[in-house]
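Hi U.,

Before I forget, here's the chain from the pilot set. I'm dumping it here mostly so it's searchable later in email.
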Amino acid sequence: MYRILVTGCAGFIGSHLSEALIKKGYKVIGVDNLSNGKLTNIQSFKNNKNFNFLRCDVGDKKKLSNILSRVDIVYHLAALADIVPSIKNPDVYFNSNVNSTFNLIRSCEKKKIKKIIYAASSSCYGIPKKYPTSESCPVLPQYPYALTKRLGEQIIFHFGELYKIPVVSLRLFNVYGPRARTSGTYGAVFGVFLAQKLANKPFTVVGDGKQTRDFTFVEDVVSAFIEMLDDRINNEIFNVGSGQTYSINSLIKLLGKNKIVKIPKRPGEPDCTFADISKILKRTKWKPKISFKDGVNKLLNSIDEFKDAPVWDAKSIEDETKDWFKYLS
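Structure:
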């Protein structure tokens, strides 16, 4: 069985991936600097004999080099997410998502790494001209977060070829599920809406709510990552999505009968995200299994996770997104 490193192991997707790998019998080293990740995310398996957690920044060359000498496969999920803070602090995002990715693969030189699997973002497509959007569509990032994730992907492929390390990149579409981020940052719609639901406050709906997103449940995303362990899958980019696209209005119907407050439509955001997943369906055994309705119900069953999340309203969102409108309009 492979020995596996998961960077960002205490984050949303990273914790689910680490847990799934352990259940399959893999030995996992998880690293996280806990800037976004939470120890509560790994609490249920932290003491498992096949899991070793290290509080470590991917930018720490000495520690990382030592860890890489002990593993075969690298899953690189450590990154800063969300649009708003990337506009306010692009230098922090560049250091976390670009420089640290370079440091990671640079440290892989002369190690016996069999494959690096990178968590990329569908935000690289910007505002697509074609739906569903395939891997061959133009890459047009609209804001710093998207740019830094795309640059990380390019770095992984460039140095993977140079060092003869197989690499795979998964462009993830609108991942949701338990353990989703609930930081103080204004970000993912599920975190915003569930905190509002718990507080019995109105849902803040951007525009008319008819915009659609390819909401993909975290269990399906994790199974796609695990599928990439197949020795035959190398040097590829795959979209990972649900195969459908759902409106914000349809999400609200599933979440319940809160009041609605409409807020202005934001520049740089697509009206639709919709993954063309024909490539991954054709080239691998993976396919999405969790329906949107079932996924939302699973999330509602863990809604207490969001009780400490910030409760946003129209005014606080307006204040938080001033830079968004300033730079992207």
